[in-house]
Amino acid sequence: MEFNYLAFAVPLFVVLMLLEYYVARKKKMELFDLHRSIANVSIGILERLTDVLVAGVFYFFYHYIQTNFGLFEIKPTAAMWILLFLGTDFIWYWYHRLAHEMNVLWAVHVVHHQSEDFNYTVSARITLFQAIVRTGFWSVLPLLGFPAEMIFVMLLIHGLYPFFVHTQVIGKLGIIEYFMVTPSHHRVHHACNDKYLDKNYGDVLIIWDKLFGTFQKEDEKPVYGLTHQLNTYSFLWQHFHFYIELWLMVKKQKTLKDKFKMIFGSPTLIDPDMRERAEKIFGIKQQEEPLQHRLNNYVIWQVIVMLVLLFVFILFEFEMGASEKFLFTSFTILTLINCGAIMEQKKWVFAVEFLRMLVIGSALWLYNADYQIVTFFILSVIALLVLFYRTVEERYLSVVYPD
Ligand SMILES: [Zn+2]
Ligand SMILES: [Zn+2]
């Protein structure tokens, strides 16, 4: 049996998050909001999962470009590894900078910046869309002639580093501050203080920011999050709100030229009122009161189970077929939507439970040859849904939302 050892990144990151939580408590720093941490980790779970699924596609894409269009035939010598590292980091700088300067790219990157907390869980706020856009930018590397194997190793190392800079428990790091991206630099990047906006885009090296005039030292207390905070735990809304806002803005523009300007222009062009309009269209209600006291253990347990399942899924990834992957992904997405919805005390969460049961039913049907049991399971789920929907829903909601 062949294992995917990248699975161990999941427990490693979880242990580091818990360690940070422990250190923060010892230092009496209030860094973690439970709801926000769950929202952050939820986004990370789906990204890790989908990333595993599409990694092969990316690999073939790079390999195809390098073998067909590669300018040079690059061999893995020490000098070339260093060049590749610099190239990867340089491209990242420009990807990240453009992601903040162009609406169409900001739509995928905004998710990383929504959290009003700043801790290791924030590093999990990456989406599959962001991974795809980044891959597009990094295609320059195979075009230069770097082989896909080299690029994959580099992206793995390069991808681990940013995790460590999302923390407030580490202060300034002396001489390292001069050339590397440190927690202090990245705190500035995640802050919405006026003087900190659009600064410190670097991933591993801070030299690009110093070179291209986007460097800012941390010299006042950062306030984290967006300039116009999102205030929602909805899994879907966090992913898609900006697309809707952008679409509303594009629709408002009269000429084609203005529409293009909106798509490729700066996020500052977006009218702040668009958020409210988008929320009205989709019936999204902002949280006014913190839900801390009502937090449900059910959500916490679902997240814990999903983390364990994610670890198992990645570890045995090579052994799984397409239908298994598809069912697991559907189950994950429904569970994450469910958690977000419970944190917002949404009533439709009940319908999601049914969908999830149908996914489990389909899985049973696929892997358990006992046809009758599975048919019975699926039929009972449907019967429950049709005949006793109201009664079961009431009972369910009174358990999930006790007050
Ligand atoms: Zn950013
Ligand atoms: Zn970040």
UniProtKB/TrEMBL annotation:
Listed InterPro entries: Fatty_acid_hydroxylase, Sterol_desaturase/TMEM195
Q: Name one GO molecular function term.
A: iron ion binding
Entry GO terms, CC:
endomembrane system; membrane
**What sequence ranges are listed for the domain Fatty acid hydroxylase?**
81-214
Q: List the subcellular locations.
A: Endomembrane system
Query: Principal place where this protein is found?
Result: membrane
Key word rRNA-binding present: no
Q: Does the keyword Calcium apply?
A: no
So where does this one cross the membrane? 6-24, 45-65, 77-95, 135-157, 295-316, 322-341, 348-367, 373-392
What keywords are assigned to this protein? Lipid metabolism, Membrane, Oxidoreductase, Transmembrane, Transmembrane helix
Membrane topology of the entry: Multi-pass membrane protein
GO process terms (BP): lipid biosynthetic process; membrane lipid metabolic process
Origin superkingdom: Bacteria
The signal sequence is none
Q: Which PANTHER family does the record cross-reference, listed alphabetically? A: ALKYLGLYCEROL MONOOXYGENASE (PTHR21624:SF1), STEROL DESATURASE-RELATED PROTEIN (PTHR21624)
Name of the protein in its database record: Sterol desaturase family protein
Q: Which organism is it from?
A: Mucilaginibacter limnophilus
Lineage, top ranks: Bacteria, Pseudomonadati, Bacteroidota, Sphingobacteriia, Sphingobacteriales
